[in-house]
Amino acid sequence: MSRRRVVVTGVGAIAPNGIGMAAYRQALKAGKSGITWHEPLKKLNFASQIGGTPPIEVDDILKTIPETDFNKLNEAMVYSTLAAVECARSSGVEIDLLKGYSQSPVDWDSGAFIGCGIGGMDTLFEELGPVMAEAESQDPGRGTAAMGTDIVPKVMGSSVSVAVGKFLGLGGQTCTNSSACNTGTEAIFEGFKNIQLGFAESMYVGGAEGSHYGTWAGFDAMRDVLCSKFNDMPEKGSQPMGAGACGFVPGSGAAVLRIESLESAQKRGAKILCELVAAYCNSGGQRDGGTMTFPNAEGVARCIRRVIKDSGISPSEISLINGHLTSTTADPREVGSWIKALELPLDKFPRIQSTKSMIGHTLGAAGALESAAVVDQLSAGYIHPSINSENVHPEIRKVEASIPHALEERPLEYVIKASFGFGDVNGCLLFRRWNGK
């Protein structure tokens, strides 16, 4: 069975350091961090009091989402909707939710995979929990009626894809996946398969994550997992590949890519941003060093190698690695896995960067926001810096020359992106610069 070529024709992003792709690009090129100190975390006695949250106000949201709809969405749903609308518009789809959308025709050829790691925490903590507690203590007879009718859509696991499917009118498979930190990357893989197998002409793919403290609390309780040494210098907290890395910085936001068959894109005259050449996900089985929190190195290498094999290229053709690289003790192991998988002389090792150095670890949105950065770098011709890594971790110094500490503007050919998640799950994507053929 022949596989159809898959291209990227649209992208939208709601990131801690930029709302919309234009602002996100500007921040990435400038090496601008979106990580800030959060006073509520101090009041809650969190050890880590910093995080990355998109700097967006309700008034800005209501410029895109009607107020009646906004009131029915949780935070992750809002982020995914905003990113999806920008993505659709950038791909050439005319959409204006404020002018009405419910009467627009169903797009039977398009679907969505929008992932989320831990969704609906804001609804659970701020709506469902308090209402139930009050009903039990003050008015037992009132029961669940006080919650209203919007609770279920806001807490169900598929809420982020349901929102995107509703606003864009998608008739293809519309689904939410959840695979920890690999969620956003896995969503792109799932959409890729839908198109290659002919089940859809286009798919909106990506991930979203809210910023409620309930999402971050469990990680803070694990101690030494989150960064707690830079509460007074939040922009320095995320140090992937750096000697001072002391835990990841949590973040939130969303990114959505529109991927579609090459035939579909050419038929409608869409601008092609790049090609998604190969994608794959696997697991390490939580064996041979793989655990709930650490990946099996062989599983990681196999995932990377499978993508390269499927693409038909040589590892030497890769211009850039956009790694998972979380600013934890896993960073040296990850770099070691890249070295093992690519089997290149160290002086030929590709450039390697971490977008998390500027936005933190956005959990279910991480692979999506990082893929949005990859697409933009390929289409615009630049490599963003990996900040806070000037003092490279001793175990990574063997590839120190490959880490970009400043903006590099030049054409790229192939960029490989990987994510690794709790549960020993892995995902890898390979993108190619679009040259017209």
3D architecture notes:
The protein is α/β, with parallel strands linked by helices. 34% of the residues lie in helices and 18% in strands. Strands 1, 2, 5, 6, 7, 8, 9, 10, 11, 12 and 13 form an 11-stranded mixed beta sheet that branches. It has a two-stranded antiparallel sheet with strand order 3-4. Helix 1 (21-30) crosses helix 15 (366-380) and helix 12 crosses helix 13. The protein is globular. 54% of the residues are buried. The model has no long low-confidence stretch (mean pLDDT 94).
Q: Which secondary-structure class do the elements indicate?
A: alpha/beta
Radius of gyration of CA atoms, rounded to a whole number: 21 Å
Mean pLDDT level = 94
Total number of strands: 13
Flag low-confidence runs: none
Question: Strand portion, in percent?
Answer: 15-25%
Shape: globular
Can you give the helix content as a percent range?
25-40%
Note the run of SSEs as H and E: EEHEHEHHHEHHHEHEHEHEHEHEHHEE
Largest beta-sheet details: 11 strands, mixed
User: Please, how many helices?
Assistant: 15
The end-to-end distance, rounded to whole angstroms, is: 22 Å
